[in-house]
Amino acid sequence: MAHRLLSGMMNYSDASIASTIAPFLSLEGVRKTYPGVVALDGFSMEVRPGEVIGLVGENGAGKSTLMKILGGVTTPDTGTITVDGVAHDGLTVEASIGSGIAFVHQELNLFENLDVAANIFFGREPLRAGPLKLVDRARLRALAAPLLKRVGANFSTDTSVSALSLAQQQMVEIAKALSIEARLVILDEPTSSLPLAETDKLLDVIKALKAEGISVIFISHRLHEVERVADRVVVLRDGMLAGTLPKSAINHDQMVKLMIGRMLKEREKAAESARPPGMVALSAKAIRTNAYPDRPVDLSVRHGEILGLAGLVGSGRTELARVLFGIEKSLGGALQLDGKDLVLGSAADAVANGIFLVPEDRKLTGILLDLSIAQNISLPNLPAHARRSLVSVRAEAATAEKQKSNLGIKSPSVATRTGTLSGGNQQKVVLAKWLAMNPKVMILDEPTRGIDIGAKAEIYGLMRALADAGVAVLMISSDMEEVIGVSDRIAVMHEGQISGILDKEQFSQENVLLLAVGKQPR
Amino acid sequence: MSKKDLGLLILILVVGAVVAIINPRFLLPINLANTSNLIGLFGILAIGQAFVIITGGIELSVGSVVALLGVLFIDFIATRGMAWPVALPLILVLGGMIGLAHGWLITRLKLQPFVVTLCGLLIYRGVARFYTADGTAGFAFGQNFPELEFLTAGRSWGVPNSFIALIVIAMVMWVVLHRSVFGRYLYAIGKNEEAAKYSGIRTGRVVMAAYVICGVLTALSAIYFAMYTRSISPASHGQFYELYAIAAAVLGGFSLRGGEGSLIGVILGTVLLQELQNLVNLLGIPSSLNFAVMGGVILIGVLVDQQWGVFRERRRMLEATRKGTAGAAAE
Amino acid sequence: MSKKDLGLLILILVVGAVVAIINPRFLLPINLANTSNLIGLFGILAIGQAFVIITGGIELSVGSVVALLGVLFIDFIATRGMAWPVALPLILVLGGMIGLAHGWLITRLKLQPFVVTLCGLLIYRGVARFYTADGTAGFAFGQNFPELEFLTAGRSWGVPNSFIALIVIAMVMWVVLHRSVFGRYLYAIGKNEEAAKYSGIRTGRVVMAAYVICGVLTALSAIYFAMYTRSISPASHGQFYELYAIAAAVLGGFSLRGGEGSLIGVILGTVLLQELQNLVNLLGIPSSLNFAVMGGVILIGVLVDQQWGVFRERRRMLEATRKGTAGAAAE
Amino acid sequence: AQEKPTLAFVVNGASDFWKAAEAGVKKAQAELPDYNLQLKYPEQSSVAIQQRLMDDLVTAGVKAIMVSAVDPKTSTDGLNKIASETALFTTDSDAPQTKRVAYIGSSNIDAGKQAAEIAKKAMPDGGKCLGFVGLLGADNAKERIEGMKEGLAGTKIELIDVRGDDIDQARAKKNVEDALVASPDVTCMVGFYSYNTPRIYEALRDAGKLGQITVVGFDDDPITLGGVKEGTVAATVVQQPFEWAYQGMKLMAAYLKGDKSGVPADGLIIVPTKIIGKDDVDAYAANLKAMSGN
Ligand SMILES: Nc1ncnc2c1ncn2[C@@H]1O[C@H](COP(=O)(O)OP(=O)(O)OP(=O)(O)O)[C@@H](O)[C@H]1O
Ligand SMILES: Nc1ncnc2c1ncn2[C@@H]1O[C@H](COP(=O)(O)OP(=O)(O)OP(=O)(O)O)[C@@H](O)[C@H]1O
Ligand SMILES: [Mg+2]
Ligand SMILES: [Mg+2]
Predict the structure, then answer these.
(1) Among partner residues C175, C192, C198, which is closest to A93 by beta-carbon distance?
(2) Ligand 2 within 6 A of A317 CB?
(3) Residues with pLDDT less than 70, chain C
(4) A324 and A305 in one domain?
(5) Claim to verify: residue A327 and residue A343 sit in the same structural domain
(6) Statement: the pTM of the whole predicted model exceeds 0.95
(7) Mean pLDDT comparison of A435-439, B319-323, C117-121, highest-scoring range
């Protein structure tokens, strides 16, 4: 294994030395089209051993497409990929793995019916001797345990993946990437569902990889993370290379400028509240959820405010949101809306009362990918778009057109399938369907997850506009900057309970963190 | 009418033309009437099945329900002397209740549709056989119900009334499926039930309604079948009818994953299947091959449809690329 | 053995005990041998089906394949005078080829398993009937194949050899399903085919292999069935056997969505179904109720399993929370 | 070929029983060159499918149909519809209330009585009989059972139960096996359908009880005939589908030509069933072979 030898001889943290040696991987004129879009257009880049490349770009810029090509999941229409000096027209998954490329996909790819160890070594199981290809289960566990430790996981190798939270699953994904004797690890938005401490842990893992001479491509919309770890930043715009920033030139404003082609005026922040908060809109009294059946939650959100809900992974925020939206039954406690008791039997009841949820998992629960933009927007309020329970396509299109121009949804028409939109635009469709209906309480669960910086700013603006119009906004977020930058008040959850509520003057990363781990703020 | 439906229609016409050339008696009014009568009976069944398939479900108990309700209907009016205008709605209600039970088990107790309706298939047939002690339910000699017989087995202007019933039901159901709020909900649920739920749709109720519709339509066709055969041996009556209904829907472009298919499609699927059966008999093909012909045609139909889809997708992609390139160049 | 399997085992023993109390002849060695013979035949079928169901597929043509290959086997050795040691592997190869064809249509041409195997159900039955011109394939009086008969219908130490064959196959298949890499891939594909593909698994081949295994095992049981009935009328032989096999798998804890189920489960499912049939006969229940009893028990079994799952999930959650809380407190 | 008038023989389902009828049709065809004779199997044994087959045959221009109706008692209207469009004859199981021209076949009641004769002869001291049949609800099964019970009335022989198997031969055999377990005191078994007797034979052989239990058979499956010859099957009641088909076809051809002399006043042409015992079996088998022409 040549690269091991090399890594022993050289110190790759010194980028100037690294740049003199042959690249591990290079792409030349890669082009990839999907129906209706050119996802990548003559893109070229190089990856040298031991280099951490930050890959940034707006939603739909082509980042995931590029990575899928490297992972062998799709093949480019034209262009060459050179790995270790060998040129390919396209890679297969085997070839990709075989040449030491490990890949953490943007969408999780775990098998819920298998345990953690089986998932980590899936497709590369240690075998027992003999022709039967039997799995050596003892060795499998022995191999998996140190990997879990390395990513800082606190669960065991024989836990079933179905019992893990999203973030814990993300850790398994990373452990899986580490398990390949990788020379290049590709992380496609690995932190999008990781908050706070876990993100730090991950960034440490990246640094450790680099120290071992392993290259990393790190894709993220959280630019400060990119700033922290990247040796070089590659910016994609509309499928083309918009520019490359050397380590010294990596800073927030430069990246944004390359990504969207101009400077962003207001830095991804919502405007200050234009009005004093009003009466309590929705309040939860001793609500108990499935995730923490013996931990009652008390929380109230007022008209006209944005209440941020922060907390560590699995602290029970999503579960709470699901109860407030009626998708899940509470195990006890009571809800009040505008001072009146509220019983939610289903999401339909919540919707009827003006309580809306923008869920965490956009593609599975937020929208119907196969329906058009107009059909998605009208879906929760279909009877209003119908005469004698027959749907009026015209009324539907009218509503959709209005929302499309209000929110700036980028698409050829409102009849476009939402599945073909970029993440940010999909998220806007989710918002649009509720905005078309006069919300009273708007719950947003990780509303900017996997969304680019431009779209983020727009969504913050929308939330503020909602609050100013008197809507009670509850925003769950694991992005510290976002919580602090956007909220009027911050509630922090710790193991199923609200551990504290911070007013604007108490806002600080430290305070949020302290509450999140169950300690008192200073 | 979608391109898919048009393709199916053309296939039906081409097959019809070929058969008519080989045996011109195919076009005799009596043959067309006989065949359209069966299209009516099976079509009503298939529409019911289609409503369930749209939601991503399946209804395997159809054949057994046809046997059970047929037995009950004949027993009610022929043996127990119930007036048919009472018995008929009663049977429809029973069908609806069976559908409701299935829907309830599927949506509330979260059982899989395949499992629930498979059990239904076994149970209803058993009950039907037990009810008559494995005997045959039929009318006594000379027992007549002129109005009922006219409505179910009679003809108006030479067209079987069962076929007319199908046309009426199809038109109503077309509006329900393709134009109504309920229909939209069905498609949405078939595509992604979870997301539909998060949009505030009471998915449980909608799915249950689909099973109820299927149950009622199955009950109606059970009555038609009973009046067509006028005798029901519960051990074999209606056997495999669920497969005919599913096959018609699949031929008509429905996906068993849900969320796809049109009402015209399922009707055309039924027409093609009945045309094939007619053809086998008319052209003197050994009837042992009947099944094989049916299976072969469904397979080829689905294959062509699928390959055609692949081809179109590819062309669309090519064109899109061209346009995309042109657009980029213009910028 | 999982808790689910244990529950099923207990159910089997309880039912057995009740029947034995009512009619002690249930426990006669001869009755146990007879029933375990059929468990052997249906069990082999059900294991094949299980491999397909694990991948999220379904194989509906099983009954027709049993008829077609049974007819061919008897025809080969009884009429055409082929030596059975030649005919037997030939039939197994044919079964494998049928499975391969299904797998190919499903994985390469992306047709739905339900559709492909539904067409298979129709086509193979048609071909079988055409092959014998709707006649019966059987042995002439006194035509004997002592070794073959011993292997298929004979007994060793009082245990039917078909049952012994099932045990051997089950053990091999248990290793394949639960210990081999291939088995692991099957589960993974059943749960998330896309992800398996991203992991570099040739999912197409794995799924195809599952259908081939199902085809070969079906062929084997077709031979056993042929040697059991010694006469096959292709119009009815094996009808609904796919439902028995699917029912056994479902009872044994398989999900038709794929990715769930154990080999022991499917065997126990088969045992329960055959026990029920035996019970109907031994307790003198009208044979018309046979189906209804089967359907009822499957429904109840699935319901209990489902409700039990809900209950356990809730308890697990409670406990997990407690532990979590305790752990946090200790920190 | 289209010019020649077509005569069709429609059976009630696919079964080997009708192979002899096929031979009869073949023989009649040789003697009726001016006609086109067909034997048709419906793809399922159900009223709807048989009715549909006949409708289609009428459409195809068939001049006369001889049918073994799936459910003759209650299919009056359907059969009358066919009778109004073509010459309709019934066979196997009569539908006397229809406008059929004639019935040619045997009497299932009489066949049942003959089975009772066999049992009485084989078990002069009496005994308990168990019956096995495909479809308990089918007319032919009911009539045979009824006939047998009538024939046994007043004797010490009793038909205690009849088990159905839905024409699933694996179940047919298992039914016999289970019966041996459940009712150890049974001394005689009756196979009412053609495949039931061979299944009884095999189950008894497997259990080593051949010869200990009296077997009464119906029809002429080779295994049944073999058993009769061996002495392990007491005797079997055979119908003569060959004759039904042969005579029926000739009769239909004559009828179409206007010669109605072959049709008796009551429209019933009974081809009697026969008991085939050990002494007759060789001759019967030879005849059978000769008829099927191989
Ligand atoms: N399978 C597909 N079919 C059609 N279009 C696709 C497909 N995959 C990606 N696209 C399109 O290709 C373009 C690039 O998508 P890609 O997923 O690479 O963007 P991205 O940079 O990863 O965005 P994000 O930050 O939202 O993850 C987008 O316009 C997207 O809609
Ligand atoms: N349906 C469920 N069944 C069992 N456990 C669950 C379920 N839903 C959530 N949990 C568990 O409950 C805990 C709280 O999860 P929840 O998703 O509400 O947290 P969160 O704060 O939103 O975190 P995240 O950032 O992961 O979304 C987690 O440990 C999760 O694994
Ligand atoms: Mg992406
Ligand atoms: Mg969450």
Answers:
(1) C198
(2) yes
(3) 1, 316-331
(4) yes
(5) yes
(6) no
(7) C117-121
